[in-house]
Amino acid sequence: MTTKSHLFYQTDSRRPVLAEARGIYMWDVDGKRYIDGSSGAMVSNIGHSSPRVLEAMRRQMEKSTFGYRLHFETEPSEMLATKVAKLTPDGMEKVFFVSGGSEAVESAIKIARQYAVTIGQSSRWKVISRTPSYHGSTLGALALTSYTPLTLPFEPMMQVMPKIPAPRAYLDGLELDDPATGAHYAAMLEAKILEEGPETVLAFIHEPVGGASTGALVPPEGYMQAVRAICNRYGVLLIHDEVMSGGGRTGRFLGADHWGVAPDIIAISKGFGAGYAPLGAMIAHDRIVDPVLKAGGFMHGHTYAGNPLACAAGLAVLEEIEAGAMMENAAETGDLLKSRLGALMQRYPFIGDVRGKGLLLAFELVEDRQTMRPLPKALNAYSELVELAYQEGLIIYSRRTRDGTEGDHFLVCPPMITNAEQVDEIMVMLTSALD
Ligand code: PMP
Q: Entry's Pfam families (predicted)?
């Protein structure tokens, strides 16, 4: 862009201006075509410009675009809540809509705390999370996030919460499919609860399948179940942040569905609105919601929550996923893409690991595959590779090495409609960028 821009986000660096997007493709105003290889930030799960979703939004727009939740219920929000309750574990019958991931996490922490206070356990306030992790940008969600450049400037406005290591078996040289590995990392949660004092611990939050912070981390055998058991043992609530892993991208509606583990509270967003509308939800078990509602209500809310236009979009997104068997496709195409990415390890010694589930996939660059030592930060492989892929017309999502403790990793997460020929297209562009 040549004219002065008045926009700013994290930095004032400029990207091409988007003109149009359809399916897995996007075009800028100069006519250059890109493959949306990361679905934005793992958002546009069903691809762009779905006629079904656009039509549903158009129909809703003609009826009403907003009804304040304290004045009206709306049909789309009722229908979407019913559908979501069916897709989540038994007993999680109440859905609280929000407009994004941070709001969903924030709502999860607050209902957990209000529940504890309601049942006379107000000594419980600490929420243990993992490192690395990202749970959102608002002060509450940020307190659970483990990246100091993001958190430090805001202390003491927020209190950083206790952390345990994420189960990165590949870094510690442990076998992913060995139950001893899962038990090893879960024991760290138990140790942390005991160290903090169980009577002070409110909840544990983690991503069932990791997103951007860990690069599609898949938990080791037994970890999910062991974490659930430890939370039960100490009366600690289990929160699943499914903002990125939820919505079908891993091949199941929730990442945790792969292990059949039900948490107490779930946060979803991103693929739930799938880029059509800002939409998220916090879903809690009835045993948490009911006492809170009985005691006078949940003291929390956002003005745009559950607005009918966003809910109509969300409903149509779920219908489209079903109609197009997209979760099945995410599982199948995900396996294909993962094996193609895995094959790159023969060609490039600097790819240290390929991981993920369904179409939530990542690869990690390292200096040495044996030690998994990250590439030197100064090499700036992070922005370099993203830029080269961009020039090829492939958008991938990256996370840079932090102080040499984590590798540069790259998420390859195209929409759930991606087919085998498009996997070929992605691989040609990616190989060219890696070369
Ligand atoms: N949790 C996770 C796991 C996320 O990946 C993100 C966004 N990257 C968030 C929460 C926050 O979501 P939002 O940016 O929509 O507020």
A: Aminotran_3
Residues 307, 312, 318, 324: what is their CA dihedral angle, to the nearest 10 degrees? -150
Q: Is the CB of 212 under 6 A from ligand 1?
A: yes
Report how many domains make up the chain: 2
CB 183 within 8 A of CB 219: no
130 lines ligand 1 (CB under 6 A): no
* Complex confidence, ipTM: 0.99
Residues 116 and 37 in one domain: no
Q: With a cut of 70, list the residues of the chain below it in pLDDT.
A: 1-3, 12, 401-406
Closest approach atom of ligand 1 to CA 41: 8
Which of 269, 304, 413 has the most ligand 1 atoms within 8 A of CB, as the residue to mutate?
A: 269
Range of the domain at 333: 18-49+325-434
Ligand 1 nearest atom to the CA of residue 213, by list position: 5
- Nearest one of 86, 85, 107 to 95, comparing CA atoms: 85
The DSSP string of 263-326 is: -SEEEE-GGGTTTTS--EEEEE-HHHHHHHHHTT--S---TTTT-HHHHHHHHHHHHHHHHTTH
Indicate whether residue 207 lines ligand 1 (CB < 6 A).
yes
Answer yes or no: are the C-beta atoms of 56 and 258 closer than 8 Å.
no
Q: What is the pLDDT of residue 404?
A: 59
Beta bridge partners of 22: 25
Same domain? 77 vs 43: no
| CB 97 near ligand 1, within 6 Å | no
Q: Beta strand 25-28 with 33-35: parallel, antiparallel or unpaired?
A: antiparallel
- What are the Cα distances from residue 422, in Å, to 35, 134, 161, 416? 9, 30, 42, 12
What pLDDT does residue 368 have? 87
With a 6 A CB cut-off, is 40 part of the ligand 1 pocket?
Answer: no
Q: How many helices (H) and strands (E) does the chain have?
A: 14, 15
* Verdict on whether the full-model pTM lies above 0.80: yes
Give φ, ψ of 203 to 5 degrees: -155, 165
**pLDDT for 1:** 47
Nearest CA to ligand 1 atom 13: 101
User: According to the model, what pLDDT value does residue 374 have?
Assistant: 84
The pLDDT value given to residue 118? 98
Atom of ligand 1 at shortest distance to CA of 136? Answer: 11
Q: How far is the CA of 158 from the centre of ligand 1 (A)?
A: 18
